[in-house]
Design goal:
Protein Transport Mog1p, Chain A; 35% strand; single chain; eight-stranded antiparallel sheet; elongated; 421 residues; alpha+beta; 11 helices
Amino acid sequence: MYKLKNTFNRVIALVLSVVLVALSMAGCKNNTSSESEAEQSVAYKKGYWVGSVFVSRYTGVLFEMPQEWSRYSDADFQELAMNMNLGDNVTFDMLSMSPAGSSIMLYGEDLSKLENSDTITEKEYLDALAENLKGNTEYTYTLGQTSEVGLLDVEYLKLEVKISGEGVEKTQWYLARKIDNNMAVFVFTGKDTEEIEGMASYFTEYTEEVNQEGFGEDATEENTDEDVMLKKGGWSEVDGVQVYQNESMNLKFTSNDEWTVMEDDELNSLSGNEGESENLTIADGYENASAFEFGVKTENGSTVVMIAEDLGLDDLTKTINERGYIQMIEQNLSQTDLQYEFGDAEEVKVGSRDFLKLPVTIADGEAQQWYFVDKVDVFMLTIIVTAKTDNADEMDAFMSAFAAMQEEEETSTSSSQEAQE
């Protein structure tokens, strides 16, 4: 619905379009090296994830990913490297980003295949990067001077870059450090210098004590890939009234004679997804990455729709939570021509389910929207209620029509009685 993957891809494209300039340093040097240099080269050692913590023993850091952030997978990096024909001299190690487009990336480049690799310094590497940036036509780069900076008391050489153009206003820091015959480079991207400086708090030092605490190379991530089956609900007539029911969500919605249940064609026209064929692989009954569960409208044009979006189709979106998703909604709405004002997100009950609610005011108060989001497995359930401000009472009526198919208290009481028997 909100095309999360496309939004993330725009951020990735920005990061990689700049990083690739650094990786093109091989074009600034003669790609020859002696056999002795090749034999003595030390391979860049990739890090690994333990839950939401990235461990890089080679650079000596732990990166604790903020709750709302998402990360790129090894499979995604392998696909990138293959599409970009990077060969084996470049190692994408880690890329994590926020819904707002801030990011931290770590990559390593094997310098042993370049001429005079043993004498290449961090300054020469960043100077080559800066020169190539000047020739980029997609964005405008304002380059700062290189300077020394500490990351957990380890010295790096920093190049600060201001990026503008194509609706982008970002600041980037390149932190380069030569380890053995490899150049390890952290790329920090944020809205300004202050935000990037704050990213240092996400890092802690990797020590042998940390290794003993469960972050060694033999540590295994919790298996988050076993998805509980989420099934599509449907409408049926109950006592002469149309009722939407979904047992897997334990949720129902009761319509009335004054409301109209929207047909599939009308729902698809709302999303602009006609003709898309991106298939879900783990949901029963879904045919699109963003699938409408149902939609209902009034004569005044007020609407309520419920959508299930599969975040598991991409490892980057798979890890996003409700608050990160709300931030993505705000970002996407802000890029449209309409004027939106966002209230504070709060936790509310819909039926027996816990949702995060975002209130939105549209066009200087002419209309109102409520967004309710709840993550189930790798799916994000979203309820969107829309009405003109004069008809705001219909929004309350819509939400009153939701109920649990089976209340939690009834379920626990039944279980207790069975146990006693």
